[in-house]
Amino acid sequence: xxxxxxxxxxxxGEIIRPGTRKRIExxxxxxxxxxxxxxxxxxxxxRRPGPTLFVSAAIHGDEINGVEIIKRLLARKxxxxxxxxxxxxxxxxxxVFGFNSHSRYLPxxxxxxxxxxxxxxxxxxxxxxxxxxxxxVSKCTHGIDLHTGAIHRSNxxxxxxxxxxxxxxxxxxxxxxxxxxxxxxxxxSLRQAAEEKGIPMLxxxxxxALRFDEKVIRTGLRGVLNVMGEIGMLAQRKVMALGQExxxxxxRSSHWVxxxxxGALRTRxxxxxxxxxxxxxGLLSDPYGDSSVRVCANKEGIIVGITMIPxxxxxxxxxxxxxxxxxxxVEEYVEEWEDR
Length: 340
Known about the structure:
By secondary structure, the protein is an alpha+beta fold. Helix content is 25%, strand content 32%. Strand 3 (21-30) and strand 4 form a beta hairpin. The two termini are 40 Å apart.
């Protein structure tokens, strides 16, 4: 994207000039009764030139922590037309259908984050993805997409990124969460579509679906502001005043420990805990309590994701464990984060 393209920023037919702030509604579809469904967008353009960053949430409609993060981001005094260099495009709710129905999916039961870059004449999910790519992503230089764990799962705050890209790695470190996962790009994901356009992008995960988690929200907000400082949108002195994390640990691999048997799960280790190979993570028992099956760690690591519902079937994902070069250091740092 050229400097000329940035200067003449247009979204859904609306011209947003440098030094202005505007709310826009992007039409994406209609309901059965012809009620218009729109994607809400707020654009803050600084008076001075700089990067164009999109921050999006609720691509999965039931993942609401990101909606609150963007709400607080737009309320921060440092995010204004006078101090900002470049443009912030905030999209608090991408999947408006799922958000209104408390659902991860769209009405056609498709996962929006498997439908990018989309198509103007495809399925409903494909059309929404196409609108988002055309009106938002294609006009940006950087991106951050905010997520939580899926329904009945909770995630330790973490960044997922393709770390083979040096610029993306720098952004991941700048975000400032304790754990960064080197995550391969999935077909049809927003990350894949952004990378194909040469746009470095981060995916933030934290908390669980349909629940606000105050610590996760504050961590995500601080991380977005940190990235804005890293790419030159905000003065570093303003970002430093907000407080940054001291160190980031990159996990080169992670795996799920799955239920070896159906039953009711009693967990013995929680989110953020360090576990050793063979350590007891939980017990599965039958309705009578006559017998129990041990669930144990396959490798040493840190629990970065966990099921929140105790009733499980054989093969269900229970504990997501990330592995590090120095697990002890990560454990200590996560404990410090939990205490703050």
